[in-house]
Design brief:
Keywords: DNA-binding, Transcription, Transcription regulation
Family: Belongs to the LysR transcriptional regulatory family.
Protein name: LysR family transcriptional regulator
CATH topology of the largest domain: D-Maltodextrin-Binding Protein, domain 2
Number of domains: 3
Number of helices: 13
Organism: Caenimonas sedimenti
Oligomer: single chain
Largest sheet: 5 strands, mixed
Shape: elongated
Strand content: 15-25%
GO molecular function: DNA-binding transcription factor activity; transcription cis-regulatory region binding
Radius of gyration: 23 Å
Order of helices and strands: HHHEEHEHHEHEEEHHEHEHEHEEH
Length: about 300
Amino acid sequence: MTLKQLEAFYWAASSASFGVAAARLHVSQSSLSKRITELEGQLRQTLFDRSGHRAVLTEAGQQLLPLARRMLGLADEMRSLGAPGGGLQGHCRFGVGELAALTWLPDLVALVRAQYPELVLEPYVDLGAALEQRLESGELDFAVVAGYSQRAGIASDAIAEVRFSWAASPALVGRQRSVTASLLQETPLITMPAAAGPTRMLEHWLAVNNLEAGRRLTCNNLAAVASLIAAGVGIGLFPNGWLRQMAERQAVVELKSKPALPPLQYTFQWRRDDGRPLLKRMREAVAGTVDFTKPSPLW
């Protein structure tokens, strides 16, 4: 019995499919299956029922899973003894939203590379709902997204708050500096898709205040949304860090609203059954670099 065999079994049992598990380990699916078959032969137990559309754990596989998780965790601890960078190695796949990618993600990557030189980072940028799905399926180790996950298998830990403000081009709104029902009816509202955290927050704010947008323009790229707002196509939300930067150049103006928009909570999310030391270290690294107020290099 080898650690590679246990690792193959663990990820196959914890991921949505053998294909996802193989991708996590950077091996072919046939190599993954071979390792699991070898492990089954050594244990003289069938660990997966492969008769259906998707392989599922047998009773023996369910009994082995917590033991395999424990053994792999102990192996990680042994690697950390006196090893450079605390012993973290291999690949770490994680997800962030576009705002994180355009602000503090470079700082996180630089910090982790310096502290854990043998760990290869693979960041993915997407909407929060898509990142949660990939996290649940085993494709990601962790994600930093807006809001708390409603999925039973995902844990969420508050990591930062982000404030947004209404913004518009001064050419579009003239001397107006407040959001009114008539402005929302007469001017296009530019937002990210419905699955995006800022949009969910905005929709709740509109509903609570009995307001509706007359016309909408949806774009799945936050930087493009900001550019459209600055170009006078419509009004929308800017992260406060970006707003200050653009307002200093007189590219946009802030529009006040009553009540003000609520802060948007961002969380560090991971799978509840994943207790690897990697996640504790990454949580610490994110906490040390997260800063959504940083100016965007695009402006």
